[in-house]
Every structure is written in C-alpha cells, then in structure tokens.
Amino acid sequence: MAVILDSFLPPIHTLTSSSRKWIPTASSSPRWPPIDSSPKSRFSLSSESQPIKGLAVPRRSAMALILSSCIFSNSALAEQSVGLLEYIDTFDGYSFNYPKNWIQVRGAGADIFFRDPFVLDENISVEFSSPSSSRYKSVEDLGPPEEAGKKVLKQYLTEFMSTRLGVRRESNILSTSSRMADDGRTYYQVEVNIKSYANNNELAVMPQDRVVRLEWDRRYLSVLGVENNRLYELRLQTPENVFVEEENELRQVMDSFRVNKVNA
Question: Cα separation of 262 and 93, whole Å?
Fold first, then answer.
C-alpha cells in the first residue's frame, strides 16, 4: 500500500379459561349438574358465556402485545451499538476507535488490522506511506477530494484485479468530502461501492451456460490524513447490507481517525 499511496503524488472502518367444566367429587359415582332444558335456561347459559368470550379476547390481545413488546425490545437491543474502543499507535502517529467486539488479525499486510469475528468481510485497517519516499505536507497535496476519490478507487480496483475468467467488477464513487477535525487538520473522506460478478461456469462453450452471478457487494470507506510527511489511510470494508444496519457506528469510526505528530 505504501508504494501505491506514494503514487498519488510525484516523488515528494391459567387461563384459566373460565371454561365451565365439571370437576368430579370423591363419591363413587360422578354427579353431573342438573340440566334444565327450558329455553330460558339455555339462553341464560349462553348469555353468561358472552362476557367470558368478551374477556378472553382482550386477554389474548394483551398476551400478543406483551410478546410483541418483548420481540421489539430484543430487536432494539440487538441493534444497539456494541461500543467502541480506542486504538493509539504512538510510534507511527495515528489513532482511531473500533468496535470492541472486533478482533485484531496479525500478518494481514496492513500496519494494523481488525475484523468482525462474525462478519468476516467486515474489517478496518490503517496503512501509510514511507516518509523516505514521500514528502506530504497536507492532504490537499492529493488535489481536491474528488481527485483523491478517483485515486482511492483506482487503488482498490488494482488490488482486486483477478486472473479468473469471467470475473467482472463494477465500481462507483458514492461520495467525497473534506472536513476539519478538532485537531486542526484537514481530512478527506471517500466512499465507494464495488460489486464483483463471476460466471458459474466460466469454461462453458455456449454463452447460455455461463450464468453471471453476484459474488459480493461491498462498501469501502477511506479517511485520508497527512502528518510526519506521510499519507495515512484508514480503511473500512463492509458488505452493503451490513452497512445499512451499522452505518451510524461505522461513521463514528471514520470520524474518530486522527494522525499525530511523532517525536523524532
């Protein structure tokens, strides 16, 4: 990443049912309640049962309401943020927040790399250029945010190049922006979407036998900052369907990224 980032410039993420049932007594022969066959008796029983039914409906409604409330409550708890932890690298000069249930993965090629233990396509990393081969003074050395966005997208597509037959990538820059953080530095933010398509049978002779399917659909969020003559990049990768659910938290991660002066 350092080499490619340097290429941005020239050398310099109980009812009881009130069912009216008869309960047998201790006598040897059960005694059933007398039956009055008169119309008045029948209608009287029927009229008494009406309030019972009337009471049963609200009870069922109440139970449904309670169950519904529990379900929505659990759903709301599941969607709550898991919380963020701060990672600080005083040696290389940067810091950011990340979801506290994410785990660090070593040997991933970046300076630091965390990923979601359940959604393996969701991760965050930080990379930076070498100060010996680049002399960045400001992120504005990259040009306006729109130009930086094009370079970021090009870098992603270069990394995702595939030699497999029938693989096709669709990409789109969703947004580019510039912001002044509380540390007085300017940061660029870039969001891109990349989709990968592949044939289910790339060696098939007939075109109708090569059915194109979507392999993955991801959102990539980058934050760029400059300090210590280096270009730093925070990268967030997440599936698009997960991004919709976790957008607020992921944007907090983006906004938390800071580059810091390193003492020589």
Answer: 5
The residues, any chain, with a CB within 8 Å of residue 15's CB and separated by 6 or more, are 56, 59
Q: In this predicted structure, what is the pLDDT of residue 131?
A: 82
- Residue 253, number of CB atoms within 10 A of its CB: 22
Q: State the Cα–Cα distance between residues 101 and 255, nearest whole angstrom.
A: 19
Q: Rounded to an integer, what distance in angstroms lies between the CA atom of residue 13 and that of residue 122?
A: 8
Six-digit token string for 168: 């096709």
Give 117-141 pLDDT, tens digit per residue: 999 999 999 999 998 888 899 999 9
Q: How far apart are CA 236 and CA 96, in angstroms?
A: 12
- The pLDDT assigned to 24 comes to 45
Residue with tokens 């919709």: 244
Give percent helix, percent strand, percent coil of the chain, each to the nearest 5: 30, 30, 40
Tens-place pLDDT, residues 37-52:
444 443 343 444 444 4
